[in-house]
Sequence to fold (597 residues):
Amino acid sequence: MRAMNLSYTSRDQVEVYRFSWLLSVGLPLLMVALQAFMPVRLHFFRVFDFGLLLTIFFAVSRRSQLSGTLTGAAIGMLQDGLTHTPFGVFGIAKTLVGYGASSIGIRIDVENPGSRFLLTFMFYGIHQAVFMAIERELMGQSIQFNLGHEAGAAVVNSLMAVFLFALLNRFKIRD
Amino acid sequence: MNFFSRHKNTVVLATVLLAQFLVLAMQVKRQTAEGPVRLIRLLTVSAITPFERLFIYSGESLRGVWANYIDLRSVRRENLRLKAEAGQMRLERAREQEDARQARRIQALLAFKEQWIDTTVAAQVIGTSGTETSRLLYLDKGAKDGIKPDMPVITPDGVVGKVLGVYGETAQLLLINDPSSGVGAILVNSRLQGVVKGTATGELQLNYIMGDEAVQPGEALITAGGDQVFPKGLPIGTVAKVSMGRNLFLDIKLKPAADLNRLEEVLVITAQKARAPDTTGLGPIRAADILAGHLPGVPQTPPPSSPQTPSPSAPNAKPVPAAHLPVPGASQSPLTAKPQTKPQTLTAKPQTVAPKAGASAAKPQTAKPIAGGAAAKPTGSSAAAPKAVQPPAPKTATPKPLSSHTDGSKPKPAATEGTRPQ
Fold:
């Protein structure tokens, strides 16, 4: 079973995917818009970070550090544009996530639900840690860290990632 | 073959162009009617808000069809309930109108300036920032609807926030529970002033209240009006929890008056006017009245020249504020006004002293400040307490002098009780 094969020794063993330009541009726009709209009616939607999930998905699917970096930067800046904070807060955090996810995607299998759950859980934590570091150190804001809330949000986002990635797999184009 | 290898030149060109575009967009500020706006923020908002509008309006349409059907079923029962409620509220209103006239009159005497909400624009919430850390909402009204930055935003429940950025057909609403917001506030009972700010977790807290002050949970909080954004007197919330914080200040958590997590429609206050309260129909206000309102109280001693001067040892004789003393009118001097010297037996016929509000407005020039015949022919108003004549001690009955209200508190003349308009 392929899901049990969790690590690779050569990049040649790894399947690399690409996506249509329409999907690459339209999907982040759509998901970020959805994330901005949904909390108006469904307050709990605020906990989801679709930008982060897309960054991870594109990064591990393309398995290119350069692509992951740029994708993370673009999605992060898009999210920054909807806030009143300076551009770069989410941009930097997601750039690092994109780079890290694509680096891991080269080395381990990220196609099974378990590894996707763990990957998303881990990168959610990294994203929040970087975000808080920027807010505190660069912007001088007093951000309070709520471990229970962050852990819960990480689990919820990881579960969403499992379903979302399965759905988005349909749009992959094998390179 | 890898995509980047195949289209290397195009990718490099696109990357360089994109990088330059981003750098440029971040540096350039586009001049709009509401001030400079970063180009990249303008582009982002322009790209996202059409999606939000599409979502919200299509959802509203679908929900409207269903809601109309449901509404029809309960509209009759609702109508009966509302009729009963309206009748009750009419009674309430009549009573409160009288109180309001009284309050406005006192404010006018003290030359208070009030901030009034002049015009508002109703707006619908069409989106959020999409993050938990930025308490920002997007409204479906923008510069074209007269919205400008720093305009206060309210709901019928209370203050919600202020307008941050304004675009053509969209505006950003910064909620009061965002860490970067701040509202000048007053605690209603203790009159302590502080600044309401948001926390990173979206809570509201009142800052800068010293640790030795007594603040009770449940106490209401209103806007102070000193921040040049929010008009004075709008509800902000209530005190939820009080504990000792750091730096000698209390740590006061608040419960917002409006549900900041479930906002759908809001009102943007587009114009405020500072003006003196409207006192038309409340009777004449003379310079002497205003001066008298600021004078200290003096003992209740009638003019010595009066032939009917009551005994100084009259029972219940108390100091009376100057505002309640006979005031020289435009057409009548205190010395020539006979009624001033005539004792008035308020307790004998208390109802007759309290006239209907606004009665004095009918004859503002002829209204006699000294209510010589007031017992028989009421001409004043219960709201006119500052101008009312303090009756000297009667010969036949124990007088009940009008209470003094120099502290601006609501006057409750004993003689007016039971005569409130029904």
